[in-house]
Amino acid sequence: MRIETAGELLCPDEIEFKLVSDLIKSRFGLVFDLGRTGILKNQLASRINELSLITYTDYYHYLSYHPDRTPELEELARQITNGESYFFREHHHFEILRDHILPRHHARSPQDPLRVLSAGCSAGQEAYSIAITLQEAATGTGAGGWKVDACDIHPGRLDQARSARYGEASLRTCRNADRRIYFEEDGNRYRVRSEYRNKVRFFPANLTDPAVADWGRYNVIFCRNVLIYFSDDAFHEAIDQFTRCLLPGGYLFLGHSESLINRRDDFEPVSLGGHIVYRKKAAGPSSAYS
User: Fold this and answer.
1) Which catalysed reactions does the entry list for this protein (predicted)?
2) Structure letter (DSSP) for residue 100
3) Strands (E), the chain
């Protein structure tokens, strides 16, 4: 019997479903519990039908052994992760970056660029928001400038990010004046201007992959509204990776529904601009920031 939607599944074998959900958890660190199980079943049903398969077990075998398992895993990642984003989401974070972190960094290390990572960058709206913020703040200062790296698990989203073209929904918090300054019209879409997009580097990455330790060292990491979907183990694996990548005293920005309080002892919550961000603890007074 074919699977069409979660509501039409006829007594599916929960052991078979668990095979696939456990694979998703181990591969991507994502969990679908309580009210989110039905969402996952609908998404899996779509892929099962698309591949002309029948059961969850068929799909599990496809993901595990089929010659085309790699592109299918990439498509599955796109289906089950929330790629919705827009420019300057949680605007106060960019104000903190501009008004507090960038000036402190340039006061301490005037010749060194501020290095920022946008982790789980989706289609690039966050990364370009960071670039715009830093470019506008650093212009004319004569300081060491900035560099932005950005990564996501889904290659298709990274392709969109590199193209830097967006629709109205992505610009919904941008004023008309900002649109004219930061974007150029491209048909019925908007493209980030070259002075901002050319300074952002995009690359594919799984946040729970140990290879993240080779990315580089950063002063700031943004990872917002991503970890809320992670299992507890995957959450700590990702934070472990960020700890290794962040320089002592570096800052981690999380989404409003995410917190490290009472979960980690290698970061301390600090208030900047009236909002909480997380600073990597340093062993002594040589912290990158104070």
Assistant:
1) L-glutamyl-[protein] + S-adenosyl-L-methionine = [protein]-L-glutamate 5-O-methyl ester + S-adenosyl-L-homocysteine
2) I
3) 114-119, 146-152, 165-166, 183-186, 189-192, 200-204, 218-223, 246-254, 267-272, 275-280
6-80 CATH: 1.10.155
Of the options 3.40.50.150, 3.30.930.10, 1.20.1740.10, 3.10.350.10, the CATH number for the domain spanning 91-280? 3.40.50.150
User: Taking the CB of residue 179, how many other CB atoms lie within 10 A of it?
Assistant: 14
- Per-residue pLDDT of 23-38, as tens digits, reads 888 887 778 776 678 8
Q: Are the C-beta atoms of 208 and 227 separated by less than 8 Å?
A: no
Distance CA 14, CA 176 (A): 51
- Lowest mean pLDDT segment, chosen from 13-17, 43-47, 79-83, 252-256: 79-83
pLDDT of 106 > 70? The answer is: yes
Residues paired with 151 in a beta bridge: 119, 203
Residue 90, sorted as left (phi over 0), alpha (psi -120 to 50) or beta, turns out to be left
| Angle in degrees, 0-180, between the axes of helices 56-65 and 37-50, rounded to the nearest 10 | 70
Residue 168, C-beta contacts closer than 8 angstroms, at least 6 positions apart: none
Q: 77 is written with which tokens?
A: 């990642």
Considering Cα of 258, then 244, then 273, then 269, what sign does the dihedral take? positive
67-76: burial string, b at 16+ Cβ within 10 Å, e else: eeeeebbebb
Q: Would you state the structure tokens that stand for residue 188, as one six-digit string?
A: 């019925």
Contacts of 70 (CB under 8 A, 6+ apart): none
The three-state secondary structure class of 231 is coil
Q: Which amino acid is at 32?
A: F
DSSP 30: B
